[in-house]
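dumping the sequnces here before i forget
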Amino acid sequence: MNVVAEFVLVVLVLTDLAVLATSRLTTCVRLVAVQGAVLGLLPLVLRWPTFDLPIGTLAVSALALKGIVFPWLLLRTMRLVEIRREAEPYIGYTLSMVVGVLLVAVSAYLSTQWLPVSAGNAERFFLVGALAMILTGMLVVVSRRKAISQVLGFLMLENGVYAFGVVFLRETSLLVELAILLDVFVAVLVMGVAVHRIQRGFEHIDVDQLSALKG
Amino acid sequence: MNHFPIEAFFAVLAGMALAPLNLGVINKVKAFFAGRKGPPLTQLYSDLAKLAGKGAVYSRTTTWIFRFGPAMSLATTVLALAMLPLGKTSALVAFPGDFVVVAYLLGLGRFFVILAALDTGSSFEGMGASREAKFSAIAEPALLLSLLAVLTVAPHEGLTPISAASSALFGAAWLAAVPVLCLVAVALFIVLLAENSRIPVDDPNTHLELTMIHEVMVLDHGGPDFALIQYGAALKLWVTSCVLVAVLIPWSFSLTGANALVGMIGISALAVAVGLVESSMARLRLTNVSQLLTAAIVLAGLAALLALSGALS
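..and the predicted 3d for all of it:
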């Protein structure tokens, strides 16, 4: 169990770090899709070999949304606004990768020393991964210029929240998890449209130039 | 120690004798994928014999450091070889904390090659020296973090030599450590490519002035000195392969010689892997090399984190 947990954690964290290190947005979207697919399977892996319908529903809907629908929506938006690469992030790719590892270290420290949760060994590993994903998602949101990267960062952040929820599914309700998934679906849909509108209105999606209000 | 460590002694001798052959394996693999016949496996032996028979020419600018460099780099590599296990054999020389000494012996050898390059007074060699110093400085944390991760997952007491740690890692313990070992393996492989100036970090065949790293530093060496450099480079490939193989091989045999044999097979397999990488990849742009090496640090750091948090809980 511990080995599987570690493997999943490594895959999740590595996809996040890879997103931090790549400038090609298509690759980033694919990486987040892989992460979403792994997360979709996570509830099943955690409860292996037992299986019940609610968990199955959650796994299937998460797999479909995070692994297929979100990446498809994002790739479609990227086609529409004709964006291929993140131009000049505030924090460079190499540096943000290093910061990413530091964030993993911080989350490892937090989840072992600080969080007032009673978790087993395997669950502790997932907790580290979930926190790291939340933090790296935030890093992507604040360090990238393109609106589409920020949507991607939001998705990574949400993946972390989802992982956090799945690990403690016994204590939170399944309904809440499903509702969050629905919310995120709507959010990504709306953000896709919004990015497209920004592109049509300003002919770029560089959020750096959207900070000043015109009066 | 009541008996002579025959297997460890044999491992060192095998390393010194077979290291040039290892480079031949890489060249054969590359030739195979390029559809060529390629140089014979023993090409480097002939090269070394030819170079050793020549005289050396020294520029008037150079001092004793220039002559001292090649010998020093070879000597440190041989010392490192004696301290490393071949597969799961125990190392000839082992003491607590010896992995740090191994890492810095390699560093010392490189330092003297860099000094010798600077000693020629050629700005061209200075450029190569600066690149070598930069990339090896980034590769070093990756190597040390990888070793830290391996030593943490291996059951041991106190500061254990890498040989003892790696020989304790097999069976169930190996299986439990697979995620950490995978990360470490990738990190160490990148370090191996960088330390030995292989593609995608450096191209050992290129002589294009803009892209050379290692080759540019040894341009002014000739004859026996160049033989020492070539042999030292081959031996360094063997030594860095030893580190990776010792980490990766999951089985340990009680039969005398079997461990060393498996280790040598592992090193040849690694040479084939290096050949595969070289045939399928282009050299990275110089500015991207440091990103690759940082990725190695990141992987090794993640492995160390995982190992440490596993050890704490």
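Chain A has one domain: 2-208.
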